[in-house]
Amino acid sequence: MANVQGADTGPDLTAMLDVVMQLLLYFIFCARLINEQTTGDIKLPVSQAAKPMTRGEGDVLFININPEGKVLALGEDPMNLTQTKLWLEKRAQDYRKDGEVKAALVVRADRDTSYESVYKVMQACKDKGFRRFKLRAEMIGGGN
């Protein structure tokens, strides 16, 4: 390209740099959300039959349960069972299609959490309309 004075100028890269920066910020934000959903504070139980999630899972919600039985969800303070039921009701409304909740729940309970706490949370999920559950465990030999 030549301008009026005859000096040669290169292509304008402003728009391309703007798109690159937006993509970079998008991926940084997404990576941060994934890390918060699968917090390292939860020590998963060990299992020989644990297997990774597949891509065809559809909509997935992560629920972490700490050793005290409190539920940890993305962007929320630790919740007791009553608060968890309210949170689940809102999520069920978000994912309800054709009369049923389409999202799967991934339950990541700490290995020191009592079975009673896990059972109560899963029963609350069932009462709110969730039907697809996945329990996460750590594979023997690493991974989660």
Q: What report would you give on this structure?
A:
The chain is α/β, with parallel strands linked by helices. It has one domain. It contains 3 helices and 8 strands; from the N terminus they run αβββαβββαββ. The strands form 3 sheets. Strands 3-2-6-7 form a 4-stranded mixed sheet, with helices on one face. α3 links the parallel β6 (104-109) and β7 (132-135). α2 runs parallel beside α3. The model has no long low-confidence stretch (mean pLDDT 78).
SSE arrangement:
Blueprint: H1 14-37, E1 46-47, E2 60-65, E3 71-72, H2 81-95, E4 96-97, E5 100-101, E6 104-109, H3 115-127, E7 132-135, E8 138-139
Parallel strand pairs: 1-8, 2-6, 6-7
Antiparallel strand pairs: 2-3, 4-5
Helix pairs in contact: 2-3
Summarize the structure.
The chain has one domain (9-144). The chain is 36% helix and 18% strand.
Number of domains: 1
pLDDT averaged residue by residue: 78
The radius of gyration is 22 Å
Order of helices and strands: HEEEHEEEHEE
Poorly predicted residue ranges? none
Annotation field: number of helices: 3
Briefly note the structural class of the backbone. alpha/beta
How is the main sheet built? 4 strands, mixed
Shape label: elongated
Structure summary, number of beta strands: 8
How widely separated are the two ends? 55 Å
Helix content: 25-40%
Sequence of strands across the biggest β-sheet: 3-2-6-7
Strand coverage percent = 15-25%
